[in-house]
Specification:
Largest interface: A-B, 11 and 8 residues
Strand content of chain A: 5-15%
Radius of gyration of chain A: 17 Å
Largest sheet of chain B: 5 strands, mixed, barrel
Helix content of chain B: under 10%
Order of helices and strands of chain A: HEHEHEHHHHHEE
Low-confidence stretches of chain B: 79-93, 96-105
Shape of chain B: globular
Distance between the termini of chain A: 18 Å
Number of strands of chain A: 5
Shape of chain A: globular
Oligomer: heterodimer
Strand content of chain B: 25-35%
Distance between the termini of chain B: 18 Å
Chain lengths: 222, 171
Amino acid sequence: VRIEGVAVAGVGMVRFGRYPDRSGPALARHAALAALHDAGMSLADVDEAFVGYIQPASLLGIKAVKELGLTGLPVTHVENASATGLVAFREAAWAVASGRAEVALALAFDKMTDMARGGGSGRGANEELEYYELLGFCPEGEGERLVDEEATALGGSIPFNTDGGLIARGHPGGPTGLAMVHEIVQQLRGDAGKRQVAGARTALAHLVGGGSVCTVSLFQAD
Amino acid sequence: VVRRPTRRPIEDGYFTIPEEPSEAPRLLGSRCPMCGEHFFPRRVVCARCLAEGCVDVLLGPRGHIYTWTYVHVPLFAKRDRKPRGDADRRARGPSGPPPAAPRAGSMSSYGVAQVDLPEGPRVQGILLGESDDFHVGMEVELDLETLGEDADGNDVVIFRFCPVGAEGDRA
């Protein structure tokens, strides 16, 4: 499905890490303000918000948006396992595409315990090869060849995971999908620095969650 | 010298605990430097004008009752018990005995009020007193209510309101 007339106006994120002294909603506030500043907007411009997190507590998404102000905008919690962040993004994109919102905010955060981190999603190197094939970047069984030929490395014909992906960046669950969108926007703006893919015009974000969720978003530079 | 147990808030960041027990506690709030609006609890971004950089201010200690109700159930139903840690939960087990009943003389019933502070925020809190002690518009003052002890023997306290002039813990 092609969503016409929807653009990513701004992105912002807090570097993934351990922040024992900051709450999830406080981290979300920093990321959201960065995104609003990037877009040259304030919360008053936002018509609807979708907030993703996995840690099991009710109303944290509302709490996170309340940190940004009280404007009366509707806030919806999105949870779809490891794909949570990218599904929140999809919902925001559809809210704008449908015409019910002119500006929508997709926000995600998570606070994980060490146990949850260790036992978390197994997004591993083996899966990446499988996705090369399933996404059609190479025929079945030839994912390994794609790596050997360095096609998926920076400078290759189809660079993957330019920010290190889930293994190098970390995978706190909720915000991973939005970190992907953040990286894609840096790439399509030509702002990715040492990670820049020369001449990047089109990008794809793909995320699976819990074995039963899969979401893919395609982006094009203006 | 009478040693008083150290008082600890039930949650950090919401109210002060004065060294001198005769002093009223204050609420930890925020003020927007742009539009001047006050908030409780504290926040960074102004909820009204969306300016960033609200500053910390102390609110209260007095205000006026906007509305109130009375609850004929013990406060938290577990006063005078130590906070329930893992060891305690294990000892009781999933179907173990229920938490101990509150001792006689504790808050076996309590009021709940929404109090308008002179700075603007309307704050909900528990009320010290009997059900016929309160009326709308009444001036009340912040006080601290001891809920129990923590593992280190500190008194765990929460803020409450009591009618000005009433005898609270501080009297």
